[in-house]
Structure to design on (224 residues):
């Protein structure tokens, strides 16, 4: 059974940093890209970042480029999202998802709140 | 980037009725790389349809997808009580991946 469990959210001040983690199981982790998708309160879905299975391909939305860094550790079946220079508009539930272009398995989400 | 526009914004229907949701792209979606998701309050999205018309694992056959190019449709034939939710389309033919703004299907 495929499982995706994201964690690491919390309350952080504007300009601060946070690292999200996503642990996956039930599939050959290194064979698949993984993505982060976020959802601001009461809003729709926004793709944030993706990383290929080998980490050779890394992609970011323009809204986070230069501030967020995605990485993965295939020995631990885990993906990370390092978020720096956080802004109020980054407040959202962040979901980790297994990607095949579409997102076939999602984590439960972790809430990031950027506020003073 | 490809902008996806979903219509209507909300739909008020009774159980047993047919729901027809539209997703229109600002430019042609390559290889019909379009997916549909269902999201209920407090839950993560769930994949329903990929490649415009293929049902994901475990999705009932009352959900069907159609379309190509710039116009896509999700049809729910015979709404069940658990189908009342928000539905999103997403394209993955061109980077960046983009989502529509969602259609809320409400109980009438």
């Amino acid at each position: 059974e495929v499982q995706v469990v994201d964690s690491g959210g919390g309350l952080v001040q504007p300009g601060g940093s946070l690292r999200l983690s996503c642990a996956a199981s039930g599939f050959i982790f290194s064979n698949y890209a993984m993505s982060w998708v976020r959802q601001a309160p009461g809003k729709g879905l926004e793709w944030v970042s993706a990383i290929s299975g080998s980490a050779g391909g890394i992609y970011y939305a323009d809204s986070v480029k230069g501030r967020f860094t995605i990485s993965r550790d295939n020995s631990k079946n885990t993906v990370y999202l390092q978020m720096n220079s956080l802004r109020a508009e980054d407040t959202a539930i962040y979901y980790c998802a297994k990607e095949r272009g579409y997102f076939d398995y999602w984590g439960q989400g972790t809430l990031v709140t950027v506020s003073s | 980037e490809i902008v996806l526009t979903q219509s209507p914004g909300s739909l008020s229907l009774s159980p047993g009725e047919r729901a027809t949701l539209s997703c229109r792209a600002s430019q042609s979606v390559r290889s019909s790389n379009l997916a549909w998701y269902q999201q209920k309050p407090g839950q993560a999205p769930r994949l329903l349809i990929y490649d415009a018309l293929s049902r994901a694992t475990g999705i009932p056959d009352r959900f069907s997808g159609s379309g190509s190019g710039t116009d896509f449709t999700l049809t729910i034939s015979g709404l069940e009580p658990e189908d009342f939710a928000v539905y999103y389309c997403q394209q993955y033919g061109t980077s960046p991946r983009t989502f529509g703004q969602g259609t809320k299907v409400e109980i009438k």
Summary: The mean pLDDT of chain A is 97. The two ends of chain A are 40 Å apart (CA to CA). The longest strand of chain A covers residues 92-100. Chain A touches chain B through 20 residues (CB under 8 Å).
